[in-house]
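User:
I study polymers; will you set down one protein's sequence and C-alpha cells?

Assistant:
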Amino acid sequence: MYSTPFILSFSLLLSLPILFFFLAPTFHPHPLPPISVPDELDDLRLFHRATTPSLSSSHLSSSSSPKIAFLFLTNSDLHFLPLWNRFFRTAKTSRYNIYVHADPTVNITRPTKSVFDDRFIPNAKRTFRASATLISATRRLLATAILDDPANAYFAVLSQYCIPLRSFNYIYRSLFTSKTFDLTSNSSDLTQYGVRVKYKSFIEIISKEPRLWKRYVARGRFVMMPEVPFEDFRVGSQFFVLTRKHALLVVKDRTLWRKFKLPCYRASECYPEEHYFPTLLSMQDPDAVTRYTLTRVNWTGTVAGHPYMYKPKEVSAKLIYELRKSNYSSSYLFARKFSPDCLKPLMGIADSVILRD
C-alpha cells in the first residue's frame, strides 16, 4: 500500500529525535564539573592565611629589596626551562622568587639542579582550559607568594609556553625604577629617583569586544547580576603583572568569585580566566591599573580560542625585536605562544639577542 521510498522517508523522520538525543552533547557540550567543596575549602584556608593583617601590607618590605614573584601556571613540562635558567643566571637571588602550579593529575617532570628546584607549590589542583579552575590556580599562586615572602612586590603570571623577551635586569629596572617604561604614566607618578610613587598593575582590560555579550550570558542571561552588571564586564589576557596590593585584592575577593566560578552552559563562549581578573580590578581599583599587558600574544589566525603558536623556523632575532614593540610601554617583557621544539633555536639566540640589553 505504501511505496518503499515513502517508508524509508518516514523511518528517517522518526529516527531524527533519537539521533538528536545521542548527538546533543556534541552540539551542546556538558559544562565542566564545578569546583569541589573540599577544594574550595582548602583554598579558603590558604587565602585566609595570606590575608591576615600581619601579612597584608601593600607596601614594600623595608628590610630587603623588592622582589618579582614569577608565577608559572602549567599542565605539562616546563618546555623552556633551560632558557629560564639562563634568564635567572645573572639575577640576584634577593630580587626574585619562583612559584609553579602544576596540574597534579599530569605526569610532569620536576627539574633538578636548576632555579626551579623545590619551586612547585604543594597545594596545586587539577585545571581545565576555559574554566574557573584556572582562576583558582592563579589565586593559589598569588596567595602562596604573598605568604612566602613579604618582599614580593610584583607578581608575574606566566605559562609553560611563555618566554622572556628581555634580560632579568632590564625587566627589574622597568618595573621598579624606569621613568620612561610606562608610556601611559604621568610624570607626577614618579619620584626624582624614578621609583613610582604609586605602583600600577600591568593587566589588559578591554571594555569593547565583539563577543562580550555572548560571554557575559554564557552562564545565563541574569546570572551575573547584580554583582556584575554587563557595563562592568571586561575581558583581557590572563597573563599579567600585579602589584602586591592587587594580588591581595584578588585573594581577598569572595563576591565576584561566587559568580565567576559558576559553570557555563555555552562552553564555546566561556573563558572565565580572561574575564575575572580584568573585571575585578576594573571595578575595584580602575585608576591603579595600566589596562595593558606586558606579555605579547599573536591573535592572528586563532583556532578554537588559542593564539598563534610560533614554530622553530620562525624563531629569529628579527622576531624577538618585533615582539618587543609596544604602543604602551618601552617594550613587551614576555611573549607566548611558542611550540616546545622552539627551545633549540631560542637557546641559539638567548645570549646574543633575547637576554642582551
In short: The two ends are 87 Å apart (CA to CA).
